[in-house]
Structures are given as C-alpha cells and as structure tokens.
Amino acid sequence: MTRLTVNNQPIQYALSPETPLAVALRDASNLTGTKIACSNGECGACTVDIDGRAVRSCAVTIASVEGSFVTTIEGLARDRDHPVQQAFLAGNVSQCGYCIPGLVMAAAVLIREVRDPDEAAIRRAMSHHCRCGIQPRLVEAVRRAAAIERGDETVAPVASPDIDARDAAKDVPALAAPKRLPRS
After folding, report:
1. pLDDT tens for residues 42-72?
2. Using an 8 Å Cβ cutoff, are 51 and 68 in contact?
3. Can you list the domains of the chain with their CATH numbers?
4. More confident residue, 155 or 44
5. Phi, psi for residue 172 in degrees, rounded to 5
6. Residues whose CB falls within 8 Å of the CB of residue 37, separated by 6 or more in sequence, listed in order
7. Which of these, 66, 90, 72, lies nearest to 143 by C-alpha position?
8. Pairing of strands 69-71, 47-50
9. pLDDT for the residue 171
C-alpha cells in the first residue's frame, strides 16, 4: 500500500506502486479536477502541489511520492476563493477550461514562492500547453493574484452560478422534429 496525504486526508492506495499519481487521483480518489492529457509530463494539465512544488502528476508514480503531501485543485480552496482562482475568474482566463486546474495549481505555488513575479518568472512557471491563446490574460491574472496575495489589491468574489437543472430547463423551448425535405 502506498500512503500519501491528499488534500489534508491520509490516503492508502492499493494500486501498483508504478501507477501514475494522476491516475490514482482521478480513478481511485475521484479527484477529477486533475486532468490527464499528454500522459508524459509535457502539457501541465495534471499539475498538482506536492510538498510545496508544482509537479506534473502524470509523470510521477505513487511510489515516488509516498509520504508526500499532495494538494489538488479540489483542495486548494473550499469556496474557490484562493487569490489565483479569483484572479482567473475576474480576468476571464478560461476558454475551454481543460488545462485551467493545472495552471491554477502552478500559479498558486509560484505566488507562494515569489511574492511579486515578473512576466519572465510567470512564463517559466506556466510552461503549460494551452491551445486556446490565453497567455496574455494568464500573465495578467497571475500578476493580479500575486497582488491579492500580498494585500496590494482586492477583487470582488466572482461567484460560480449554482444552476438547478430543473430551473435551467424551464426556459428552453422544446425542439420540434426536423421537417423532411421532399426527394428530388
């Protein structure tokens, strides 16, 4: 059994010691915020905080991090109120959103280590592959998150809408069956 502390909870994985951490987190712990994309540590979608370091969890085995403290996006902040999460929401950073949890985790580690990161430091720490073109907004959001963390700036909390599926469906008109065109 491999033992870790994940989001402040002791976990014992009864998996092969060679299981990638990202797979253990997603499949065994149901922490699906950690995304798997490239499976070789290149893209960064699976980034988590391991003992205070931003680590691409698809590239490490559970055996290699035994005894470590792991924080995933689910454990970063209970109410999505971490400065990075608030800055990303306020700066409308997300496009497709797939790589955002990994970016948030890398940014959270960066601003904990570097109180006032410059653009070069941000780009080095955020070497993720995002195809959506968010890089300019990303750099600005990380700067803003660092300012919030230092107390130099505040941001009004951006609430995520909690939509009940029954309410969402009320205003959606029923779709009519498509009309068949006559054959020519």
Report:
1. 889 999 999 999 999 999 999 999 999 999 9
2. yes
3. 2-76 (3.10.20.30), 83-150 (1.10.150.120)
4. 44
5. -95, 120
6. 43, 45, 46, 98, 99
7. 90
8. antiparallel
9. 47
